[in-house]
Amino acid sequence: MNTPLPHGSPFLRFSISKPHALGLFIYGGTAAFLLFVLLRGTDPGAQDLANTFSLPGGKYVLGTDHLGRDVAARVTRGALNSLMYASACICGTASIGTFLGMWAAWAGNRVETAILTATDFTMAFPGLLFALFVGGLFKLGAWPVVLSLALTGWAEYCRMGRALTRVIIGRSYVEAGILSGYPSSFLIRKYVLPEILPQITTTASFGMAKTILQISSLNFVGIGLTPPIPELGAMISESLPYVRRHPFVVFPPAVLTSLFVFALILFSGSGDAGKTKRNTFKEGYF
Predict the structure, then answer these.
(1) What are phi and psi of 70, to 5 degrees?
(2) Bridge partners, 64 (sequence order)
(3) What does the pLDDT average to over 88-102?
(4) Is 94 exposed, middle or buried (0-12, 13-18, 19+ CB in 10 A)?
(5) How far apart are CA 214 and CA 129, in angstroms?
(6) Diameter over CA atoms, the chain
(7) In the chain, % of residues over pLDDT 70
(8) What is 192-211 written as a DSSP string?
(9) What CATH number is given to the structural domain containing 56?
(10) What does the pLDDT read at residue 125?
(11) Alpha helices of 108-224 — where are they, by DSSP H?
(12) Residue 1 falls within a domain, yes or no?
């Protein structure tokens, strides 16, 4: 029969720091602008050859490109594409890596050795070059690129999840739960996940910024989404031949990419997302 244990579930509280507030402001302002453009319902692929390289203002908020397409509409759709693929990649890598890291720390022995060996082998692979190879070989759109980035990106979360889980396993209340026969799934849900999620979220925020840059870089060289589907990196590449005479065409996708990355780095770099405050443990029961 299971015996009662001291209540050890931490109550996590997050403080909003100045970098966090600035990141939220940048992200919120950018999202509001994208929503405004999206609600206008302009077709990002519609061409108007009579209005090529129109200056920003009036009907065209950010002007038009070399084919007379609305730059604001294309930037909005390209940003949504970049965020969608980057989010899918990060959700996959963070979930799989964290799960494998917790499993390695909890199981130990041969399971831990096998997972760590796979982690070391994966980290030896340059993820961007692997995605470049896969995307250039198959040319099936963006999802092979996202999958290849995910296959090389989970190792970082696995190592972090393992290290954090090993620390938590060594605490007295978790050891008491193991000795009392509580299920591993219950102990992980009750103690491990609430402790490691802030650190994983912080790492995922920086990983999101890195993935957006990677996807934009690959699309810049023609790997990923195929024209005429808009994407921020591809838009920068298309605008380069006209950058001297019409520099305003290349600014919107470049600036928007920088804003997204900067806001995400503020979330991950401030360090407050990984700091938690724990209430004093009170005697209680599960």
Answers:
(1) -70, 115
(2) 70
(3) 93
(4) buried
(5) 10
(6) 81
(7) 87
(8) IHHHHHHHHHHHHHHHHHHH
(9) 1.10.3720.10
(10) 79
(11) 109-123, 127-138, 142-169, 172-179, 184-187, 193-220
(12) no
Whole-number Å distance between alpha carbons of 247 and 13: 46
Count of domains for the chain: 1
The answer to whether position 283 is within a domain reads no
Q: Does residue 282 form part of some domain?
A: no
> Both tokens of residue 188?
């992980």
Phi, psi of 57 (to 5 degrees): 130, 155
Tallying the residues shown for the chain, one arrives at 286
Q: Which domain holds residue 120?
A: 18-274
DSSP annotation of 83: H
For the segment 52-77, the average pLDDT, to the nearest whole number, is 88
Q: Read off φ and ψ for residue 64, nearest 5 degrees.
A: -125, 165
Asked whether the predicted pLDDT for residue 75 surpasses 60, the reply is yes
For 262, the token pair is: 């900067």
Residue written as token pair 């009662």: 4
CA separation for the pair 251, 222 (Å, rounded): 19
Both tokens of 232, joined, read 């921020």
Token code pair at residue 245: 């005479």
Residue with tokens 């507030």: 21
Closest CA to 191 of 178, 205, 180: 178
Structure tokens at 167: 């620390």
- For residue 283, give both structure tokens: 């005697």
Residue 17, burial from CB neighbour count under 10 angstroms (0-12, 13-18, 19+): middle
Residue pointed to by tokens 């509580």: 182
